[in-house]
């Protein structure tokens, strides 16, 4: 296994490939899965067997204390290897090193239990991204 970090100005093709495999091809979201937050995010890609297997990103709000982790995606062939947990732990570490007091995630409803196991608390705030309902979860640090 290899882990690489990328800035938003780097070549994000491996991260975008994983997101396309999971969000577009598997889950049916619209192409492309790129947005304005990619350019200001720190991206993480996990490689297994020499190919991209999982990705996620983290970025900071203007307040300098609230960070967002998102676009967590693990290719189907590599699920069950705890790569989602690894992504969360490493991206949280990046946020904490950056001064995070709070981390926010927007989770698809089926994924809420995963984020709760990672220490996130559901807020009850629900929203839609395309056709899919999500909920905002938070993790706060003292």
From TrEMBL:
Keyword list, A-Z: Transferase
InterPro entries from the UniProt entry: Acyl_CoA_acyltransferase, GNAT_dom, GNPNAT1-like
Residue ranges occupied by any N-acetyltransferase domain in the UniProt entry: 1-142
Molecular function via GO: glucosamine 6-phosphate N-acetyltransferase activity
Domain of life: Bacteria
Keyword Phosphoprotein tagged: no
PROSITE patterns in alphabetical order: GNAT
Pfam families cross-referenced by the UniProt entry: Acetyltransf_10 (PF13673)
Protein name: GNAT family N-acetyltransferase
């Amino acid at each position: 296994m290899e882990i690489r970090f990328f800035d938003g100005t780097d070549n994000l093709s491996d991260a975008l490939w994983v997101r396309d495999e999971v969000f577009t091809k598997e889950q049916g979201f619209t192409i492309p899965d790129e947005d304005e937050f990619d350019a200001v995010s720190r991206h993480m890609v996990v490689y297994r067997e020499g190919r991209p297997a999982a990705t996620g990103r983290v970025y900071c709000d203007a307040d300098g204390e609230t960070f967002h982790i998102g676009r967590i995606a693990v290719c189907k062939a590599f699920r069950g290897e705890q790569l989602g947990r690894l992504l969360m732990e490493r991206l949280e570490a990046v946020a904490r090193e950056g001064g995070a007091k709070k981390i926010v995630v927007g989770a698809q409803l089926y994924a809420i239990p995963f984020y709760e196991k990672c220490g996130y608390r559901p807020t009850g705030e629900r929203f839609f991204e395309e056709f899919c309902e999500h909920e905002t979860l938070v993790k706060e640090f003292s």
